[in-house]
Write a structure and sequence with these properties.
The protein is an alpha+beta fold. It is 44% helix and 22% strand. Strands 3-2-1-4-5 form a 5-stranded antiparallel beta sheet. The longest helix is centred in the last third of the chain and has 60 residues. It is elongated. It starts with a helix and ends with a helix.
């Protein structure tokens, strides 16, 4: 039973970690090499990893999506989608897809004369499932070795940790005041019933021995 409990605990916290890793913003230092627009066919499985369509585009199965192609300092390729998040989840409130697309086109550079930018995004890249991280913003940086402090994620994680700790402390206090006394009363009653049954059994055994 203990292995099952530990297994369920690991699964629970693993799902929480995966959710945070997907949702929280990340920063990549890249060189933009191209932008393009392509119609995407969204199936029931991968639709979760794409933004919800706006009021003018209610087609859930396929739609045109803008993409930003880039190269990391180590030469690895990365492709971002460029979609508005609007008022839906995750709450980035991104409404400037057209502006970001223009900025990305303006930042296109070659290997001989590279221009490096920091792309803030959320989500995952998976070639098998054809899912892409969503670019939220970009800004020029001095070079490929620039380190961008991810203050957004740090602040969000601190707030979540404080919220979790506050809930945990209040649960412990509530448990000590309300739950533990009830459990102790139930245990005392069970012990009392057990003692009564044992005493009754002993009395019956003594009675049978007399007979």
């Amino acid at each position: 039973m203990g292995y099952v409990r530990w297994g369920l605990t690991l699964v629970f916290w693993g799902l929480i970690a995966a959710f945070l890793h997907y949702t929280l913003p990340q920063n990549d230092i890249v060189r933009i090499v191209n932008t393009y627009e392509e119609r995407q066919e969204l199936n029931d499985w991968t639709r979760l990893f794409w933004s919800r369509p706006d009021a003018q585009t209610q087609n859930l199965t396929n739609r045109d999506v803008q993409f930003i192609q880039a190269v990391r300092p180590n030469g690895d390729a990365i492709v971002y989608r460029n979609e508005d998040t609007g008022w839906s989840w995750p709450p980035y409130f991104k409404f400037d897809t057209a502006n970001l697309y223009t900025e990305a086109n303006d930042a296109i550079s070659t290997k001989d004369t590279p221009e490096w930018v920091a792309v803030r995004h959320y989500g995952w890249r998976n070639q098998f499932l054809s899912i892409f991280p969503n670019a939220v913003s970009l800004k020029p940086v001095a070079g490929p070795d620039v380190k961008v402090t991810n203050w957004h994620s740090i602040i969000i994680l601190i707030v979540l940790a404080a919220l979790f700790w506050a809930i945990y402390v209040r649960w412990r206090r509530f448990k000590a005041r309300r739950v533990d006394p009830l459990v102790e009363d139930v245990e005392d009653n069970l012990f009392a019933v057990g003692d009564a049954v044992s005493e009754r059994k002993a009395s019956l055994m003594r009675w049978f021995k007399k007979k």
